[in-house]
Amino acid sequence: MSRLTGLWLGLLAAPAWALPPVSLSVGYSAQVFSARGYDFVAGHDHLQQLRVGAGYALPVWRGFLDLELAFASGSTHQWTHGAIETSFVMRGLEAGASFRLPVRTHFHPYLQVGAGWDWSTLTVGSQARLTQTVSAASGRAMVGAQIPFKLGPSDSKAPFLMFDLGLGYVVRPSAGFDAMAPAQAAVSGEEPIARARTDLGTLPLSGIAYRVGVTFRL
User: Fold this and answer.
1) Bridge partners of 125?
2) Is residue 54 part of a domain?
3) How many folded domains does the chain comprise?
4) Helix, strand or coil for residue 172?
């Protein structure tokens, strides 16, 4: 018998108190930007991101309080006026808390609030030309539902596979790209070249957010 098979059988046979209420999730998240300034970095209004997270569940009242720490990363690419190449990258860490209420066996609606820190990088031309990274705090509120399926007999202690759907809103201060500058220094031995930082204005980063993912929960 392989180690993986032995581990799986051990999970099925373990009592409920022996299994930590932890979860691992991976999925797709996106945010919709309606400000016209976002057209400078993307040809569409959606910033698509890969999202991974880890959580811990606490029983409260008739449901559960799910605590989660997640990381998301995504980027866009655009040719502005057909000649200027721009790219925008956003990465962020978020700590969130959700109240999840098991209404039915395969339907667990939830309400989530969270706070995070995001890093946004704007590049015009290439990294050898103009680029800048700014960071700021963010806040999120979301409603959604998880659809759980037990990976084993209904009366066993087998883990759950949860399909997660959520919709909400993210609040961030506008990113101020007011110090765009070349990322690379001049080649050694050449005469130093005077360089001035370029102000490209601000980019609003608040908007509607949604996500689709899967969660593996013990």
Assistant:
1) none
2) yes
3) 1
4) coil
CATH number at residue 92: 2.40.160.20
Per the CB < 8 A criterion, the answer to whether 217 and 19 are in contact is no
Q: Which residue has the tokens 């057209």?
A: 39
What are the pLDDT digits (tens) for 52-111? 999 999 999 889 999 999 999 999 888 866 677 888 999 999 999 999 999 998 999 999
Q: Which amino acid is at 152?
A: G
Phi, psi of 186 (to 5 degrees): -65, 150
Amino acid 105 reads: T
Rg (CA), the chain: 22
The two three-digit tokens of residue 129, written as one number: 């030309």
User: Which residues does 141 contact at the CB level (< 8 Å), separation at least 6?
Assistant: 111, 112, 113, 168, 169
* Rounded-to-integer distance, Cα 15 and Cα 19, Å: 7
Look up residue 82 and give its two tokens: 């057909």
Residue count (the chain): 218
| Strand 160-171 with 130-150, pairing | antiparallel
**CB-count exposure of residue 3 (10 Å: 0-12, 13-18, 19+):** exposed
Q: DSSP secondary-structure letter at 190?
A: S
Tokens of residue 142, six digits: 């979301």
Place of tokens 């945010």: 31
Residue 5 lies in a domain: no
Domain range for 32? 19-187+197-217
